Q: What sequence folds into this?
């Protein structure tokens, strides 16, 4: 009886040791691949950054695009953004190679699960970053426009837009990662619909005068041929331009 | 009339117009595009009076969309249609396309002087138009800009930003650096057309140009011509943020482009003054307390909501000044010139450094500008020559801009 227990324990211990012996080189290979590709990535990023600096890439982008790529970039430098993207792509590639090496080392069913999920995770990360940037951009745009339209609840409006986009992004990320299933869809539908309704009510009730005035102005607007004096805005004692 | 007959008539007219060499080209802006002859009559009458003997050597070009349109003559004036490149700018000011058209026509006729006229040009006095042409022909100025007589509460963006900033940085003392009408010498047109060409090549024919800044950078002379009262056309948009954004974006970009020029200390640009038209002091219209309160309220709403954005752009000392300002009652509301100067300079820097999206940055300037307007209205009765005082404040604080431009990361309390 005891000898059978002992044999079973020895067998288990032996299997654990075998698994460990197979696992450790795999982990080592994974680490090695990540470190190696990170070094290659760093070198590539440095090279690309130097090249772009020499080509005055930031200035050229700045001249052509006053409100685009540079706002997405770290420290508002498009060349830095590109070099960092290259670096992290190399790191992700190293991780993928490492996982495949790990898989080759013995655990046969890991790669088919990890790779698609890794691809989904990268997609989700990109959606998250883009959504966050878009949320910030739109919330600022709304805030500034609302302030210039003299709306007292400008901040609330801006926060509403920001959270709408963030919730939309979060739902997309979760859907992409296949987390939550239909709960996310239903929850998102309820939350998003509720927020849109609340914002529409707030905006509609709070600024109906502004909307009416704006529509009146649009209806009265005539074709401006020379002749801009034909447009007589409300007589005011201050002229800005 | 058959097509052949029309072509023959056009060629005859061309020959007739080329018989006398053209010294001056007067180019009417895009506002006169396809204008019927009747609509041009008031302007032609003013031009006839202004040109006098010079009419024979002057060509008046006006924009048309019909490529078959023929030149014509009327009472000694030669009129020639040209294909319109420009559309009407929101601010009804001259754009790159207008300068390119002027350059093209001047080159075709080997003219030595060009005059661009903006909307409502018939309200200019003939003496003012003659003064602009004389500045180029007789005084050898390269860029002649008019000095309109406007009310103390008119042209406030110009008074708050455009004039003092161009004066402090580029040494150009013209009252209206973004004028509706201007006269240019041949070499000035060539230089400005080269800049305009770059912009139209990148698909931006409606970009604004700053002729006085180009003149300063090229070492050309400028002239300030008193022009009396002129009807100033309304922008085609009533949105202040759009107007302010368009003007400041253009000027701030120009400042960035010419940074190597203005960072060096230089004497003011040589300027001829022609004062044939007496300046008119228009009375300040009464601004109702409600209107002033509206302006102050706009600033306060901005302060309550945009503080976070402003703190990315403005240093703590300026933010503190704004905090004090937001707490002042309407009766004593007053923005010190030094505070406004710092705000403008910090926005110029933030525009260059792209601290935040440029569209957002310029949008966030509007409530601050309205605070300046409110303060300007309050102070107008008590201050002597406010534009001059403000321009001097900009000049005095220029070292701050230069220093921060060179070392933007240096500690700035």
A:
């Amino acid at each position: 009886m005891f000898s059978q227990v002992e044999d079973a324990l020895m067998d288990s211990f032996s299997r654990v040791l075998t698994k460990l012996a197979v696992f450790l080189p795999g982990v080592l290979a994974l680490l090695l691949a990540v470190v190696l590709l990170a070094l290659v990535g760093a070198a590539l990023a440095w090279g690309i950054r130097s090249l772009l600096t020499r080509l005055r890439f930031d200035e050229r982008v700045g001249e052509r695009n006053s409100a685009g790529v540079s706002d997405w970039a770290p420290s508002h430098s498009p060349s830095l953004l590109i070099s960092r993207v290259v670096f992290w792509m190399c790191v992700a590639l190293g991780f993928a190679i490492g996982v495949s090496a790990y898989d080759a080392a013995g655990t046969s069913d890991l790669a088919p699960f990890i790779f698609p999920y890794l691809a989904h995770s990268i997609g989700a990360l990109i959606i998250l970053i883009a959504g966050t940037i878009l949320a910030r951009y739109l919330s600022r745009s709304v805030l500034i426009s609302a302030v210039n339209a003299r709306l007292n609840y400008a901040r609330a409006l801006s926060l509403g837009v920001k959270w709408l986009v963030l919730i939309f992004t979060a739902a997309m990320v979760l859907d992409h990662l296949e987390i939550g299933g239909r709960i996310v869809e239903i929850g998102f539908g309820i939350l998003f619909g509720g927020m849109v309704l609340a914002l529409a009510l707030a905006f509609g009730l709070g600024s109906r005068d502004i909307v009416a005035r704006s529509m009146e102005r649009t209806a009265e607007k005539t074709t401006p041929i020379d002749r801009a004096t034909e447009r007589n805005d409300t007589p005011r004692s201050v002229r800005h331009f | 009339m058959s097509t052949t007959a029309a072509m023959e008539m056009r060629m005859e007219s061309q020959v007739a117009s080329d018989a006398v060499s053209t010294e001056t080209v007067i180019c009417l802006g895009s506002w006169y595009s396809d204008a019927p002859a009747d609509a041009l009559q008031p302007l032609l009458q003013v031009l006839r009076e202004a040109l006098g003997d010079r009419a024979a050597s002057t060509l008046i070009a006006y924009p048309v969309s019909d490529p078959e349109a023929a030149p014509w003559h009327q009472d000694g004036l030669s009129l020639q249609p040209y294909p319109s490149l420009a559309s009407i700018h929101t601010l009804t000011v001259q754009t790159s396309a207008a300068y390119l058209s002027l350059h093209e026509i001047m080159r075709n006729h080997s003219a030595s002087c060009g005059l661009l006229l903006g909307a409502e040009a018939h309200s200019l006095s003939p003496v003012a138009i003659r003064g602009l042409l004389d500045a180029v022909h007789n005084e050898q100025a390269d860029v002649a800009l008019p000095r309109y007589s406007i009310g103390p509460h008119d042209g406030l963006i110009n008074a708050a930003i455009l004039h003092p900033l161009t004066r402090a940085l580029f040494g150009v003392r013209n009252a209206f650096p973004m004028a509706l009408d201007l006269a240019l010498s041949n070499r000035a047109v060539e230089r400005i057309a080269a800049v305009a060409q770059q912009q139209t090549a990148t698909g931006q024919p409606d970009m604004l140009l700053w002729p006085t800044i180009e003149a300063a950078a090229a070492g050309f002379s400028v002239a300030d011509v008193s022009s009396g009262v002129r009807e100033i056309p309304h922008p085609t948009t009533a949105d202040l943020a759009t107007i302010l954004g368009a003007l400041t974006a253009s000027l701030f970009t120009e400042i960035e482009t010419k940074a190597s020029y203005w960072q060096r200390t230089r004497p003011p640009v040589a300027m001829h003054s022609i004062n044939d038209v007496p300046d008119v002091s228009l009375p300040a219209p009464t601004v109702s307390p409600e209107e002033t309160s509206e302006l102050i309220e706009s600033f306060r709403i901005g302060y309550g909501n945009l503080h976070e954005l402003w703190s990315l752009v403005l240093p703590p000392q300026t933010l503190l000044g704004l905090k004090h300002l937001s707490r002042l009652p309407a009766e004593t509301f007053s923005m010190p010139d030094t505070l406004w100067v710092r705000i403008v300079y910090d926005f110029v820097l933030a525009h260059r450094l792209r601290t935040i999206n440029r569209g957002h940055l310029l949008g966030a300037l509007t409530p601050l500008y309205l605070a300046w307007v409110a303060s300007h209205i309050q102070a107008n009765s008590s201050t002597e020559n406010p534009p001059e005082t403000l321009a001097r404040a900009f000049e005095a604080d220029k070292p701050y801009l230069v220093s921060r431009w060179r070392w933007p990361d240096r500690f700035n309390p």
Observations:
- Residues 111 and 153 of chain A are 52 Å apart (CA to CA).
- Chain A has a mean pLDDT of 77.
